[in-house]
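User: Run a structure prediction on this.
Assistant: Running it now.
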Amino acid sequence: MMKKISNEKLNGIVYTPKRIVNLILDNVNYTTEYNIHSKKIIDPSSGVGAFLVAVVDKFINSALKNNKTTNNIKSLLESNIYGFDIDKEAVENCRSNLNNVAKKYSILDVNWNLLCIDSLNREIVSKYFKKFDFVVGNPPYIRIQHLGKERRGKIQREWSLCQYGSTDIFIAFFELGYNLLNDRGKLGYITPNTFLKTKAGESLRYFLKESKSLKTLIDFEHYQVFDNATTYSVITILDKYNNKDIFSLYKGDLDNIKYLEDVNINNLNIDNWILTSNEILKKLKHIETRGIHLSKISDIHVGITTLADDYYIFKEPVIKADIATIRLKDGREFNIETSILKPIIKASVLKNSDDDQNRYVIFPYKKVKGEHKIMQENELKESYPLTYKYFLSIKKVLLARDKGKPNTVSWYAFGRSQGLDTSFGKKILTSGMNLKPNFIVWEREEYTFYAGYCIKFEGNLNWLAKQLNSSYMEFYINYISRKYQNNYKSFAKSFIEKFGVENIDLKFHRKQHTFVDF
């Protein structure tokens, strides 16, 4: 899609390069080698026409090769090419762009089938179901929670792949596109590759498996194919007539796309599609089943989340006895009570077990029956008057957190309650993203942490860290995890929890409440 920059974030728009457009059209066999001038095609999120401009050019050339007259071609264009978009201005720009293409071939005054509609309004678009030979496009990427309540509810009611959890509307466009295809139709989309691994994409993965329509996946992994967006992309080709469990897998960047092999979709775990060779899948399965899952012998937690780190966490504050001086990025300085500070580690930049970083977090909580609870405002004001005064000076900032959503605990509480108790104590720390495993033992119990994950283990932390920093983990995470720019991998709980730990003494290191023998 192509739309003006001011609308991009609002409508989830990412401009589609011509090379991507042509790659998708080639993979659905929309080429002049076939009689595409007699086939119906639609882009249900057409924008100003990145796909349709290329479609019209190929369509006219196909018709000319088959000796169609100008009048014949005009009529065929009007009955076979469609575009939907919610943006009225984009639709008009698309119309102009298509006219410019047709004009090159002396074809004028085409009555284009371009509709300004919400493509996910099932009531309107259902009359077009099972009509098209081809569906192509670059659907908008918008997390469903970022939509208005009414539209969000309507999408969840009308599109089965979006009924559960935090999803993205591009997943609904897969369901829409499939419904728009006739019995022999083909679909080609470029979308984020998140649906391959996330919980939100599970319904789509299940649908692709059950429908037996998946023909090709081109995974760009950590390579960037868009100029103005950090999006990790995959091209998905569906063929409604395919009816096979096998699909072809390709990987690489736009300059070097390589065929990997044909993959049996039944070999993929519905929880996480690992797109690799069958041989590597066997090795990954061996790692997961060779011992006991990490999550069965330990607890994996995230750190604290303030949603305003610049106002809670300070590096190298000036501490003199009972008073600490903190400095905001705008240059303002404040005095607060030293006793309300806790030492904190930023796991994402931690280098070794001796690196304390000299960071402190304002911690307006107290222990109540073994759990941290927020201090009541009167208590905070009386016991920590300097800190309370500081909080009042930044109250507007704190109230604006989480898009202005009221903090149900207190206006000066952290943005999330996670990690308040589990982030302290002896632990193994790791960044949420890294090039390779870097699990660091941290034995100073008074420290909390943020920007990463911790592993709590009752046994020898150094022994476990050695297993987690092994070549096995490096191999495992390289395939099991999501990849980001410059080949960084995610070390989130969902990607490390099934790592098999060998040679563990079960008498001492099992989690009694969750342990299951293999």
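Residues 12-275 form a domain with the Rossmann fold fold (CATH 3.40.50.150).
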